[in-house]
What does this fold into?
Amino acid sequence: MSFPNVYNDDLRAEAYSTLDFPGTYYLAFRDLPSIIAQHVIGRRRALDFGCGAGRSTRFLKRLGFDAIGVDISSSMIEMASKLDPDGKYVLVEDGDFRAFAPGEFDLILSAFAFDNIPDAGHRRELLCGLRALLTDEGRIIMLGSTPDIYRHEWVSFTTRDFPENSQAKGGETVQIVMKDVSDRRPIVDVVWFHQDYVNLFAASELDLIAQYAPLGHEDEPYEWLTETSIAPWIIYVLKEKSARRLLPAQF
Ligand SMILES: C[S@@+](CC[C@H](N)C(=O)[O-])C[C@H]1O[C@@H](n2cnc3c(N)ncnc32)[C@H](O)[C@@H]1O
It folds into this structure.
């Protein structure tokens, strides 16, 4: 299925390069250190799938991981490398993980990349490819947007110009505008519901072992809009299906 990657764009890479973890994004990353500490045993190698301008890769490095960022957008990879010249950022073809060895990573983080990937079959292929890169105890942590983010107003996002978002079914496109950057062109995402994710994980031979939906707190330094009552983000923690490890190699 042909779908524009709105991130393969120099202006958007420039916008992402200025983005740290403001406003609503703060909620996405606030709880990740403790979630990672709880679920990820090894603390060595991490892959940041869909690293963009490297914000999430630099986050992993600060947590002590030897992290590699990969993306299909050359604009994003160039920006990530410029912002972190000593970092490892790799431009990949869509779904091509041959640059990495099976069982190489203790943690694979996907921060918002799956929001932009249409077609359930392709999502499954990507997730199966990523699963193969996990160590035995490795975990995939998938951070993504809830359907609610496309229907409400937030500190960092507006969707008021896109009332049609609320009618979108799983796998259909939605639009959202980021308020923290000067590039106010709408982002075209694909909305996926929790059941879509549950189906995706089962089809990808992954067990969902935990999920988190972070809410804003009144004592935080933001004038939260919807964030205190409805979660804009969902964080899924996944591991390879237990049975796979027990089966003989030929199966
Ligand atoms: C919303 S950006 C997030 C970037 C970064 N993780 C962050 O938190 O700032 C999503 C990124 O996923 C990338 N992406 C989308 N589909 C991808 C794919 N099939 N393989 C690798 N990266 C992909 C896009 O190019 C984009 O840079």
The helical segments are 10-17, 23-30, 32-39, 55-62, 74-83, 120-131, 194-203, 242-246. The mean pLDDT is 92.
